[in-house]
Specification:
The protein is of the alpha/beta class. The chain has one domain: Nucleotidyltransferase, domain 5. It is built from six helices and five strands; from the N terminus they run βββαβαααβαα. The chain starts with 7 loop residues before the first strand and ends in a 9-residue tail after the last helix.
């Protein structure tokens, strides 16, 4: 989608995982004008990369209007490079053969097409107040008592790799 005079939105994101795989969470901050909103959720068994990507998806899915000009700030080279270097487009064409997180990448592609999205990599744990806040949200979510189940991961990856876990 082309950049135009649509609503400008800034999204900061971070994911966390206690073990990889292990309990994980994401934190997202959306900002537009004088409005801001924080999102987070935790999962009993997941990976850091899944949480980094889910943080972006949650932010984009929370937008009430389409055609927003969105700048996503992330400390995940995996997510930023996959989009900015157009790797995800190649993965899609190849049906995500031998690629992880197909479910989340498809979900990302579906929601991202509704907006003009660009990514900016930020160094993690380097004093950026929004990145630091997202990190705290992600870690708190991963450590919470009410962890959700990352069903796709459990059914498609954990069971294949015989990962032993308690939920």
């Amino acid at each position: 989608m082309q950049m135009d005079e649509g609503i400008k939105v800034t999204i900061y994101t971070d994911g966390a995982s206690k073990g990889n795989p292990g309990p994980g969470g994401y934190g997202t901050i959306l900002m537009s004008g004088q409005h801001s909103r924080e999102l987070s959720a935790g999962y009993a068994l997941t990976t850091n990369n899944r949480m980094e990507l889910l943080a972006v998806i949650a932010g984009l899915e929370a937008l009430k209007k389409e055609s927003c000009n969105v700048t996503v700030f992330s400390d995940s080279k995996y997510v930023v490079d996959a989009v900015e270097k157009k790797w995800v487009e190649s993965w899609y064409k190849n049906k995500f053969k031998n690629k992880k997180n197909k479910d989340l990448w498809l979900r990302y592609l579906n929601v991202a097409q509704k907006h003009c999205v660009k990514f900016v990599w930020v160094k993690g744990h380097d004093g950026n107040i929004y990145n630091e806040r997202c990190d705290r949200l992600a870690v708190q979510a991963a450590e919470s008592a009410n962890l959700e189940e990352d069903t796709w991961y459990i059914q498609n990856i954990a069971n294949e790799e015989n990962i032993i876990f308690n939920t």
